[in-house]
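Teaching assistant here, posting this on the class forum so everyone can see the example we discussed in section. The complex has two components, and the goal was to see what a joint structure prediction looks like when all of them are supplied at once.
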Amino acid sequence: MKDPSRLYRWMLLLTSLVALGFLLAAAVRENLLAEWQQRQREYRKLLAEKATDTRGRELLRNFRIELRQVSVPALGAVDRCVSCHVGIDDPRMTDVPQPYRLHPVEILEHHPVDRYGCTICHQGQGAATNFHEAKAEDAYWDYPLLPRELTQASCMTCHDANRLPPQDVALVLEGMQLYEQKSCGSCHKLGGRGGALGPALDNEGQKTKHQLVLTNLKPPYTTWRWHQAHFRDPAGIVPGSQMKNPTVTEREALALTAYMLSLRQRDVPESYLAPDKIAQKFRALSPRPLPAEQLYRMYCFACHGDGTYGRWEKTFQRFLPAIRGTLAATATREYLETQIAQGRPGTQMPPWHLQAGGLLPEEITALVDYLRASPAAWTARGSAARSAPVARGDATRGQMLFLRNCAGCHGVAGVGGVAPELANPVFLRAADDSFLATTIRNGRAATAMPAFQRPDGAGLSEAEIADIIAFLRSLAPPSQQTTQAQEKSRAGGSP
Amino acid sequence: MRTAATPPEKTSATQEFLDNLRQLPRNLKDAWFRLGRLPESEREESQATFHNLFLHLHSVRVHLRTLEPSLTLGLGLMATFSFLVLVVTGLLLMIYYKPSTALAYQSMKDIHYVVATGRFIRNIHRWAAHIMVIAVFAHMARVFFTASYKKPREFNWLVGLGLLVLTLALSFTGYLLPYDQLAYWATTIGANIANSPRELTDALGITPYFDPGGFQKRLLLGANTVGEDSLIRFYVLHVFILPLLLVILLSVHFWRIRKDGGLARPEDPAGGLAEWGGKLHRVFEPLATKTYGLMAVVRGRRPPVNRGPEGTVMSWPHLLWAELAVLMLTIAVTLALSFYIDAPLKEIANPAVPENPAKAPWYFLGLQELVSYSAFMGGLVIPTIAVIGLALIPFLDRRPGGEGIWFGMPGERDVAWQSLLFGLACTVGLLAFTVNFGWLRNWFPEIHQLWIIAINPGSILVLLFAGWSLWVLKRKDSVRLAAVALFTCFLVGFVVLTYFATVHRGPNWQFYWRPSQWPVH
């Protein structure tokens, strides 16, 4: 009779051999061929080459091939980088290839490895024991190894950039200046100050690549490559982005990227913070007002330019008004302050008061002063003729006049078209009659708003202007407070 | 102690102690291997089986059909042995793993990078888990297609079904433990499947009063979202409760095999000739006046030796060789896979950055595909129908015949082929239709959700399969054939949906031909 288990015995033999083979292979791979072991074997050769004196020979004798790590519980770091970068603190290792080379001494002097570890500055996956996964550009890890030129972004975790030697953090400082120059704050908040059109950037450096739109980026995917490409062409990287192209050079994009990467809200124990960082944090709690010119540059310039011309903004699909010149001269201080503090709801102009855009009241006042201190040519004509119509108008007649003269640009019922929305509650509340009347009479210089009454009296009559204003007032029921204010101003304005 | 054989001269106690010490190795060996050598006669072979706690799970003799590799394909054994591998590697992993959200991921990294061969052990654990799930499903299919659930094995079929559920639960609870993005979002999806009754209660507007979905989800997670409570819950389930239950059920499962007379096989005609292995064999004819108990066999009064009258051979060593071979096959396959393919470990779990697509573990992806049409239908009704349907098979199909033979009833193979094609056509057709033309919500955006719960690709698939099975029942006039039709369709549907959701579903659950076409995000 055929042996019924013959097949199984052969199978057992074969599978056992296969299993044994794989077990042996795995044991060899894990215990003898690990990358860090090979690195340390090579390092031992380097040690042997350099063992010319007693100390060198002692170092060689005591060298063991073993896994090395720096554990820094306070920073949540267990960094095994030193398993391959064995020579970072050996001053003789200057003429050897990486990963054995000496770390720049002046940095290690102040940041001993056993207190700081590696990843707090360099990022990367400290736990890994092979370079591919430690660098982590193509591995599942949120913060890959920073390229050498961007490592300086990490300094700001514990330092105030302005108190560091400028040559050490040149990129970040340049980026910081560009941020101001390119008026990024017009749309982005940082430290509670800035516009609301774009995302706040306080924690931009802690973002992972998965929080960014990578569709139009070519691999490898890293946050810094994204930032660089994005600064060069925002809409090309994020389809449909409203971000204005900051028009920067490669170098400037890199600087801005370094600055972005330096923005990290990372909880680091206070004992790790430099005193200047603590002072910086403290100052942020009670900001001092900035000069108006700087404020204008930081928070207004991106949209309004220098403010003397109104222009059609393609991405917003609306006119941006000229805010210096005639407007600043015609409008009351209250009007201008309200416009800045409250913004213009329904448009891209955000509110800038302390709780929204983060500007101090005195800063808003200073900005209004700055706007009004415009070249004399713009102001003369406006301020000379500033007065409200004497008579009360009739809203029904006003509506006809509005449709005939204004609706073409301002839209039927003042909902806005190519010209601003006049039915806007904040606008109607803030604008007094004399401002409206003067603007209708004289138009607004350097914008598309023409004068509707020529100096010789042709065009709209005073009564008609009063009718139009009455119609405008009927568009939004004014609150009680504004009604009273208008009564008062009318009473005061009439002789 | 005195016996007759004791020599009369007196030995000192010291001498006796030294003698015993000298004989210690031999006596230890005798105590351990009671026979002292490999069994030589059938009597000793039966003792080897019978006198060992673990081996006595086997009968002393085993039918030759049972040893045919083509009968079982070793699938049940493979599932058991992968469980064994899982227990061993799981214990090793437990030594290093820390079940806390703050530490879990870091401990996984340490297992990967620092623990000696830690990554390899984790790979083995992962692959053995996949193999176990696949083997359990395949084993169920084997038992079904060889009609091995029939009387008296109905109860064991139910136990097996319980083991299937436990296997899936074990695998699912293990999924969360690494606490990486994959784990977090797969578990979130799983919890949302548990939450699926809400679709119905929401549509009826009774969720504030009656919310079984929310209850299930909170019971599973211990909170409203995946977090610390879920992790410890899953951990306890994964390392203690579920394995314990599985071992208990597994013991019952094996014990029932013995009690039900070994693996299912066709009844040998008493006293005649029976055919197996392509040859005719004489079948043992029991005398009506005699009792042939197992104990009798062991005591030595047994049927003639070396003739194999019932077509049986000794379990020791034949069955043992077979089992060892399957054990080593399982281990070898697991090792080979683990050597080349690492178990995934993504970024640390981040509730703020959802994975897209967030996919459940692969064996739930068929369900997730159905859930994407209707959470209530796909997440609750259809799985419930499937489990109840599977449980009822041996009670609805009670006509004996075909046990232990692949497609043993006349016409069964044809019905299976036809059902395979029918199931394939239905599932692929419905998927293609849905991908190309959308479903009710795309055509009638204002439609009430109840319509979609009632009419969706999942429910239509169930109706098609049921209809097909009823048609076979009518036409072939056989309950078994109807069951074959339904089971084949169910299996095909499961495989196709799982494949489809694994390969062809990308970000936002959109259709893609290949994962490489997914947009990066």
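For the discussion questions: The longest strand of chain A covers residues 70-72. The interface with chain B takes residues 1, 4-5, 7-9, 11-12, 15-16, 18-19, 22-23, 25-27, 30-31, 67, 78, 80, 125, 127-129, 140-142, 208, 210-211, 213-215, 217, 221 of chain A (CB under 8 Å). Think about how each of these relates to the inputs above.
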